[in-house]
Design a protein that fits this description.
Number of helices: 10
Enzyme class: isomerase
Number of domains: 2
Keywords: Carbohydrate metabolism, Isomerase, NAD
Strand order of the largest sheet: 3-2-1-4-5-6-11
Family: Belongs to the NAD(P)-dependent epimerase/dehydratase family.
Domain NAD-dependent epimerase/dehydratase: 4-251
Low-confidence stretches: none
Radius of gyration: 19 Å
Bound molecules: nicotinamide-adenine-dinucleotide
Protein name: UDP-glucose 4-epimerase
CATH architecture of the largest domain: 3-Layer(aba) Sandwich
Structural class: alpha/beta
CATH superfamily of the largest domain: NAD(P)-binding Rossmann-like Domain
Mean pLDDT: 97
Order of helices and strands: EHEEHEHHEHEEHEEEHEEHEEHH
CATH class of the largest domain: Alpha Beta
Strand content: 15-25%
Number of strands: 14
Length: 324
């Protein structure tokens, strides 16, 4: 089987590429290298291409035919909530326009199976204990909106062109499956805290007066290696006959508070952390934890790594890179 992985030089994409290669699949990576790193794609063919370029659809279709690809995984997107609020046009143009080019290329090259990176950001600030896929998404920022619209586009492409698609709504992704594939961006809690500690600063907690047991926000952390396995499971699902769902949450169903994450980081580094308490950030729900029942039942996938595994892998990857 041959899979074209768009955005495969990025943090999550490169884990999926590595996993597919270890399972003996042929992989071609398409990436603009805007945030991606070429070395992460070792073992796969790399085609440098911006999927938002005017001629991208034709070029992608060419690459799909040349590779003999039978599936596509599409990771390439901007992913910063704050930036999306400041530059919504860029998010609509690139996240939606890029996906439109990918789907048109798949239709033209008759590649049927597509897996799309969606996000828990589609849900906005749901007031429920466990978020199920039945909940109507209500994104509260352009980033989340582009992911939700992306899911509609998949459904349209299924109807129009006979594609078979899966959207995976990732919850909080962290950790490293291989040290050299670790997250180099400083946007999520674990890398943000590790970066502060590296600078000799205390971590900052944004709000400790939420309606949660310890007052800090609760999220559902999923190890990037487990997430990579979910993509492999999604490809298997698309290649099979039965396919009752096209949208899946990817999380563990277990919530961890910011203070619990800080404790885990302290354990992994053998130190006790003393966080500063800052003000709440706009748009942060108190709790965002998924029900992972659908993906377990339909794809046979469950997360196997707990918070300590996730944090330890991130800390060890940094140490392996010679950072404290
Ligand atoms: N990291 C998270 O916590 C998280 C959570 C939910 C959803 N997601 C989604 O998962 C996907 C991957 O995220 P990531 O954390 O690996 O990000 P990343 O920035 O590390 O990877 C994105 C990759 O896509 C490439 N890319 C970007 N624009 C491109 C374009 N126009 N043409 C070709 N390649 C392009 C980048 O060079 C990079 O290699 C994104 O769609 C993101 O929205 C990520």
């Amino acid at each position: 089987m041959t899979t074209l992985v768009i955005g495969g030089a990025g943090y999550i994409g490169s884990h999926v590429v590595r996993l597919l290669l270890t399972k003996g699949e042929k992989v071609v990576v398409v990436d603009s290298l805007s945030t991606g790193i070429e070395e992460r794609t070792a073992g796969a063919e790399l085609v440098e291409l911006d999927v938002t370029a005017p001629d991208a659809s034709e070029k992608l279709a060419f690459q799909l035919r040349a590779a003999g690809a039978d599936s596509v995984i599409h990771f390439a997107a901007h992913k910063q909530v704050g930036e999306s609020v400041e530059k919504p046009e860029m998010y609509w143009h690139d996240n939606i326009g890029g996906l439109a080019n990918v789907l048109a290329a798949c239709a033209s090259a008759e590649v049927r199976d597509v897996v799309f990176s969606s996000s828990a950001a589609v849900y906005g600030v749901p007031d429920v204990d466990l978020v199920t896929e039945e909940l109507t998404p209500q994104p509260i920022n352009p980033y989340g909106a582009t992911k939700y619209v992306g899911e509609w586009m998949l459904a349209d492409a299924e109807r129009a062109h006979g594609l078979r698609t899966v959207a995976l709504r990732y919850f909080n992704v962290a950790g490293a499956g291989w040290p050299e594939l670790a997250d180099t961006a400083v946007m999520n809690l674990v890398p943000i805290v590790l970066d502060r500690l590296e600078q000799g600063k205390d971590p900052v907690v944004f709000g400790d007066d939420y309606d949660t047991p310890d007052g800090t926000c609760i999220r559902d952390y999923v190890h990037v290696l487990d997430l990579a396995e979910a993509h492999v499971a999604a490809l298997d699902y698309l290649r099979g006959e039965e396919r009752p769902h096209r949208v899946f949450n990817v999380g563990t169903g277990t919530g961890s508070s910011v203070l619990e994450v800080l404790d885990a980081i302290g354990r992994a580094r053998g130190v006790e952390l003393t966080p500063e308490i800052g003000p709440r950030r706009a748009g942060d729900p108190a709790r965002l934890v998924c029900s992972a029942t659908r993906i377990e039942e339909a794809l046979g996938w469950t997360g196997t790594h707990d918070l300590d595994d996730i944090v330890r892998s991130a800390v060890e990857a940094r140490r392996g890179a010679g950072r404290p």
